[in-house]
Write a structure and sequence with these properties.
13 strands, about 375 residues, globular
């Protein structure tokens, strides 16, 4: 089963050619953070609850390219049923991709879809987008990473950018005073409305059903967002997830009545610890903040201010900006660089990140095509 192109059956084993391709493409890439084979196989098995109401199409041409299509009745974009493509990896071979995407598109049309978006691995809870530039800097954990020719291939296939995204990086010692000067004068007024506590793994896990409802309500307006069931949320955002974020800088914002108004999760960049080229590489699922943050070399400690949500009633209070300032103040002495990662370029949060000063910027894109 070297080449394979068909609707996926979760009772099958993934083709070895599908599993091997990423290893082949990135074998000499010092920045690639790997692909966990056990996790990959589990995602395409009956263990994955996504398949309860979702269908996938899988295609691979041995040693050349692979892609997976995803369709779900809840998967609506701009009021239309949409298909996603993901797990895309390829050599610089246009012909192989033309064959795969033609077969995928034909299948998606039979499912009633009119457009194809990606890369998105199952849903936007998982890896999505491609990297466009700044390849010389490598990738932080969770950042899109791919060969530079991927955007060229998608353009040649007739796909266009739907949205551009960016990450900004700034040395903490360059922005701390700026943030302090704008935040401290207004902090007493902010605290009249909100209480800022440390978001800890213990709180997150103890309130996981509440956080599930909060996340679905807050993020459902995001582009291409597909709701997931609680079992999937627990898999994505349960114990292993909570082990990784930084409890010293992550923020939980509550009203004085005790309601959750928002949260901001900060992660150390663990990429140097999980890089498979590291002889002492740690498996991603085994990463724990308390154990592994101290192993990150001083001078290269990057705080990824990554996951933020603000409940709709509190968005008029500039809670995003206040939490951003609060976590920056708490980062002094713990991190060397602040990163505002993976923001959509038209998001209002970009303007705040720009005020931080942008010593470095990485860009990404999500693509769309008409079927």
């Amino acid at each position: 089963m070297a080449n394979y192109m068909a609707e996926w059956n979760t009772q099958q084993a993934l083709p070895e050619s599908f599993v091997a391709l990423a290893q082949q493409i990135y074998q000499n890439d010092p920045h690639w953070l790997g692909e966990d084979e056990a996790s990959l196989r589990a995602q395409f098995s009956a263990q994955n609850t996504w398949f309860a109401d979702g269908k996938a199409w899988l295609g691979v041409i041995e040693n050349q390219a692979r892609v997976v299509g995803f369709v779900n009745d809840k998967q609506m974009v701009d009021g239309e049923k949409a298909a996603f493509f993901g797990f895309w990896e390829s050599t610089d071979n246009l012909a192989a991709n033309q064959q795969l995407f033609a077969e995928l598109s034909a299948w998606a049309k039979t499912q009633g879809c009119t457009r194809l978006y990606g890369p998105i691995n199952f849903s936007t809870f998982s890896a999505n987008r491609i990297r466009i530039d700044a390849f010389e800097y490598g990738a932080f954990l969770g950042e899109p990473w791919n060969p530079p020719y991927y955007s060229k291939l998608l353009n040649a296939l007739g796909y266009e950018e739907r949205y551009r995204y960016l990450s900004t990086f700034s040395p903490l010692d360059e922005i701390y005073e700026f943030v302090q000067n704008i935040y401290l004068p207004i902090k007493p007024f902010v605290e009249q409305k909100f209480v800022f506590e440390a978001m800890t793994p213990e709180f997150w896990l103890a309130h996981l059903p509440q956080m599930y409802n909060f996340v679905n309500n807050v993020f459902r307006e995001n582009f291409a967002y597909t709701p997931i069931d609680y079992a999937a949320f627990e898999r994505f955002c349960g114990q292993s997830f909570a082990n990784k974020f930084c409890p010293k800088t992550s923020i939980l914002a509550k009203t004085h009545e005790g309601d959750i108004a928002g949260f901001f999760l900060v992660y150390p960049d663990y990429s140097s610890l999980v890089n498979p080229k590291n002889p002492q590489a740690i498996k991603l699922n085994d990463i724990r903040y308390n154990e592994h943050y101290p192993l990150i070399a001083e001078g290269s400690r990057i705080a990824l201010a990554k996951t933020v949500g603000v409940a709709k009633p509190y968005r008029a209070f500039n809670l995003f900006t206040s939490m951003s300032c609060e976590l920056t103040m708490r980062s002094k002495g713990l991190y060397d660089m602040m990163c505002a990662p993976l923001m959509r370029s038209d998001n209002p949060s970009v303007s705040f990140a720009a005020k931080y000063g942008k010593s470095r910027v990485h860009h990404y894109a999500l693509y769309q095509g008409t079927l």
